[in-house]
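FAQ: What does a multi-protein file look like?

Like this. Sequence, then tokens, then the next protein.
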Amino acid sequence: MSEGPTFSRKLLLGWIAGAVVIFAASMYLMGQKEHEGPDNTGPSTFSRSAIGHAGIFDVLQRLDIPVIKSA
């Protein structure tokens, strides 16, 4: 019943160190972008290609549920 550890201490520390390095590299590569305002590339009720959003807006308006179109 008393078996040795599944992973050696060196291997475990190597995996932890590798994970920390990868995490730090991903944080560095993401960079510090300045906030430029709302994301205007996503779908909205103003977008002609987002028929579903406009449709839901129209249905809610017809049901007399207050909705607001925001930019």
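And here is the next protein:
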Amino acid sequence: MSDAQIADPIAEAAAAARRGELVVLPTDTVYGIGTRPDDPAATARLFAAKRRPPDLTLPILVASRNEARDVAVFDERAERVAAGTWPGAVTLVLPRTPATRAWRLGADADTVGVRMPAHPLALALLARTGPLAVSSANRSGQAPARTCDELVAAFGELVSVYLCSEEPLRGAASTVVDLTGPEPAILRRGDVDEDEIARLSSAEGPLLDSGPS
């Protein structure tokens, strides 16, 4: 259903996601389609809706850095990069914690991509649901939808609740940084460039802090 048909769309979306249903939400990059990550039936539903190959891995969105630490293992380097770029358009690929190793997110059971987005609707939803498995709201291989009409045309009743932003989204994908090796590896380029990631990951002294923990 659309957000115009319900009194509290964030509450409705949170309840749907907790049930393992699919919801669409705006982020600071593109619209995402997501669900709870700890339910294999829910993540299978997300893969099917996107027609996404199961060898790709679903990223996780979180409401805070504290929450991210429950999802992934943060060393000091990861803490610096997260503190300097979150909330924002940087996805960090890190080792999974024991609590998330069983999550059926794709072929890679050892690592997970995690991000804290900078969009009030996304953060409000995540504050109610906890971490969500969220991928860009498009069929695999197609450009992400940019309007509610495009989203509904793409997914129809496969999505239980559509949260739509009043403001246009930037439309640029997040920078994806693999921090599991000795040097940061940029897996996908976005608004945050390699020099900034290198500066943050190699910084010395107190940890940077640019947002909520």
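Q: Is there any per-entry metadata?
A: Some entries carry free-text notes. For the entry above: Residues 40-50 form the longest helix (11 residues).
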